[in-house]
Specification:
Chitinase A, domain 3; Thrombin, subunit H; five-stranded antiparallel beta sheet; four-stranded antiparallel beta sheet; about 40% strand
Length: about 160
């Protein structure tokens, strides 16, 4: 069976940046199981997977514009320490959610300079090209329940 809209696809994968640094792989997180064509993956990656079958392999580079976008320095801001909860231990790299005009965003503590905290609202992989090394493990038709819910269920799939 080929990967088509609404097929349930299971992938083994390795994901790295352009410098070859490993970002994630299925050995750590298990196979990725998703419903094709429903927004579960970047559209640029889904288009490269379209028509592939179990056993096929694929190497794909997804440009930042087709993944998490380019970095936007307007999303970096400095705030006084007093704007954050007094009992919160602040460390570079920690993340928390914040309300913005665009809705909830994840903010990462980029720098601490005395009582000034630099927060970065860019996605951690903004500006990063994503290099996928994929092996299609399984392609199957979605069940009626999966079609109704719009996502994969079962092992490696998502269910609420």
């Amino acid at each position: 069976m080929q990967i088509t809209k609404q097929s349930i696809t299971s992938l083994e994968f390795s994901l790295s940046d352009d410098d070859g640094r490993l970002i994630d792989n299925s050995e750590k997180s298990g196979p990725l199981v998703y419903m094709h064509g429903t927004g579960g993956l970047f559209p640029a990656l889904e288009s490269k997977l379209e028509g592939k079958s179990a056993g096929d392999t694929l190497v794909a580079r997804i440009a930042p514009e087709e993944a998490y976008g380019q970095r936007d320095e307007k999303r970096v801001q400095s705030v006084p320490r007093s704007h954050l909860p007094a009992d919160m231990e602040i460390e570079v790299g920690m993340q928390f959610q914040s309300q913005s005009i665009e809705g909830m965003v994840v903010m990462t503590v980029a720098n601490i300079d005395g009582d000034t905290i630099q927060l970065d609202g860019n996605h951690p992989f903004a500006g990063v090209a994503l290099n996928f090394d994929l092996k299609i493990v399984e392609v199957r038709e979605a069940t009626a329940e999966e079609l109704q819910h719009g996502h994969a269920h079962g092992e490696g799939g998502h269910h609420h």
